[in-house]
Amino acid sequence: MLGFLLSEGIQEYAMQAADFKPTKLSMDGLTDHGAKVQIEGDFTMDASKVKKQSVRNLGRFGTWIAREAESGPFDADVYLPEYGNVLVGTAKVPGIRLNIRNGHTTHVSFVATVQPGSPDGIRNVANDWIDGRLGQIRLKGKASVPLKSGLINIGKQFVEQSIVFRGGDIPTLPHYNITKLNLGEAKHGLKGLGADASIVVKNDFPIQITLPPVAVDVGIEGCSASDKHIMVGTAQTRELQVRPSTDVKVDVTGNVEKLADPLTEVCPNSAKSPLDAFLGDYMKGEDATIYINCCKFPDPATPDWARDLLKDITVPLPFAGKSMGNLIKNFSLADMHFSLPDPFAEPGSPEAAPKISGIVNVDIGLPNEMNFPIDVTQVKADADIYYHKKKLGKMNLEKWQKANSTRIEGHGSEGPSLLVQSVIKKAPIEILDDDLFSEVVQALLFGGKSVLMDLKAAVSVGVDTPMGKFAVRGIPAQGVVPVKPIRGGKDVDKPDDGKDQESAINLKVGNMAIVDTSPTSLTITAMVNFTNPTKYSATVPYFNINILANGSHIASATVKDMEVHPGNNTNNLVSVLWDPYTYGGAKGKKIGAELLSQYISGFNTTITVQAHEKSVPAAPYIGRLLSRFPITRPMPHLSTPKKPSDGDDPEDDGKSHFIRGTTMHLISSTAVFTLASPFRSTTLFITNMNATAYHQGHVAGKILYELPFAVPPGLSESPRLPVDWSFGSIGYEAIKKALGGQLKLSAFAYVGVRIGEWREHVWFQGGKIGANVRL
């Protein structure tokens, strides 16, 4: 038996059959050089674990005879062979008595003093473990153990054993859950942002320990993985009691005094800063990563070895994301103003995109735990616009716009929110689907109700907080923007005769002037007054539109630098090029002359205005789109001068009439006409006239005049024109009876007209012309 105990066989049997299951590991306190650790567990000899039968049989027999073994005090050193055989630590173990018979269990409890080894070596292993580079680890223990069994003193036995931990055998960082997080202004004389958090850490180990207060630095990744982590703030815990196999509640206080510049500066070749990237992951519900740089011990009683051992160890911790899909509750635009592009911009360039101005309203839902003042001072956004779930276009508000915000406290289960308002100016709109845009315009023109646009945006905000001023970029936002109908809700089931719309627009044309002529054309300028019945305003740098009559192109109209506001719009300059022959050939010239004849005769004439591909040269798609919606409307009434007495005439129809009245001289057989020219500075000429006057349908006389005479701007009188009376007719007799008074005549005339180089022949039919009869 003594030979067995002194042989290598007992070592082999002991190493394979011994089984120790710890039930409690507690730290009873720190010393200047280490810690006192109480270890409790159950020791059992299990012969079935011995591989060699001879060793197993001899070991069972020998330990049955010996019954017990007792060790004296000894030192156990633990090394790491793969790390330069660095010393991990030394444990001073007191004497222990064990029942060594097979199948018998001994409960042991002892206090060992543990002294750490090389701090640098331990940190190297810890860093490899934290970084995931530790596929396996081998520990080698060495000890010279004094042994005796009963009265037999076996002497000191040198024991050396290696243990290899692989894969899942290596413990990982424990799981944790943040159960409370409250952010507010820093307290206790500190500056910046303060945080109070409660964290529950899962503890599956039979460990009992009292940890001293610990302070750490908290950081996040820089612009690249190789950059040094950027410090955000500090965190600190109180003294912590850890009990065996019991989850640990950790109360943490934090402080962010001021955000470092590298944290908020945009990274090279990127549009985001490190803070943007961190918050972006967090708000998408993805795990962000924070880095805990350990450790500082506020308690001066903490031994130096603990400070040296744990300093400069950085632990990455996943920071569970919180989906912020509803962070922005509402995103809307109000008081919208449209601007057509610069006509000389290159098609497809940013300058060729229509632009929108207005008031951006953003309702940001704040997390309940955010209880510190925050003020949004600027905003920008990159938004995709959808209609019927199809992508219509993009709005890129790439420049920062000034903003202001108001915090609204929550009620009940609803958290607080931040109402942000910003005035945007000339944000370009890129249309990506012309056909879909056509649907939108058609709905606005004829739908009679608001059109709902969906916006999916990445919103960036500049904020002023207790930590300082910084920007958060790329916050995901969704919203519905109602676009009000252009026609003001008119019932589309009813036929549109144009009267309601004409009345709503209230178009007035005046101060006409001919600024250029050619043998076939007139270039006319006029001042236009109208009412914008919608809530929209617009800037129109340039817009050209075709004018058609009876399907023939007869003229075009151009406006430049026009500002359109809701309500009354006055003194807007419009230029019209009247050239039926060039646009429509002989047929067009004939239609144009007929239209002029009807118009000056006071007939209800209509024209059609239709956009074309070059209506907005920089954006051909706008012209193509609007060309699908030709608009036919009555020709606007001209604003011409009136005599004061004209307004008292009960038969005044409110229309402009070229012939206002006439005075007939019976003896000289002449007539003088009062004419009203619509032009403010242009003199037109009547080159010839073939006219017949009627009274109640009966011919009264005729005028055949071949000499030209001028019609200056405003009211004027014609020369005395010779009249060939129809003596004996009913019409002439009626004129004679009206001598010294007045009667109403009608007239029909063929008239030659000249303005500059332009000449035309028109007919005129007038009714109820006031005729004064004189000798």
TrEMBL record:
<dbReference type="InterPro" id="IPR055011">
    <property type="entry name" value="Tag1_C"/>
</dbReference>
<protein>
    <submittedName>
        <fullName>Uncharacterized protein</fullName>
    </submittedName>
</protein>
<dbReference type="Pfam" id="PF26153">
    <property type="entry name" value="LEA-2L_5"/>
</dbReference>
<feature type="domain" description="Tag1-like fifth Ig-like">
    <location>
        <begin position="652"/>
        <end position="763"/>
    </location>
</feature>
<feature type="region of interest" description="Disordered">
    <location>
        <begin position="632"/>
        <end position="656"/>
    </location>
</feature>
<dbReference type="Pfam" id="PF22786">
    <property type="entry name" value="Tag1_C"/>
</dbReference>
<dbReference type="InterPro" id="IPR046368">
    <property type="entry name" value="Tag1"/>
</dbReference>
<dbReference type="InterPro" id="IPR059065">
    <property type="entry name" value="Ig_Tag1-like_4th"/>
</dbReference>
<dbReference type="Pfam" id="PF26150">
    <property type="entry name" value="LEA-2_4"/>
</dbReference>
<dbReference type="Pfam" id="PF26174">
    <property type="entry name" value="LEA-2_1"/>
</dbReference>
<dbReference type="InterPro" id="IPR059066">
    <property type="entry name" value="Ig_Tag1-like_5th"/>
</dbReference>
<feature type="domain" description="Tag1-like fourth Ig-like">
    <location>
        <begin position="509"/>
        <end position="622"/>
    </location>
</feature>
<feature type="domain" description="Tag1 C-terminal">
    <location>
        <begin position="370"/>
        <end position="484"/>
    </location>
</feature>
<dbReference type="GO" id="GO:0000329">
    <property type="term" value="C:fungal-type vacuole membrane"/>
</dbReference>
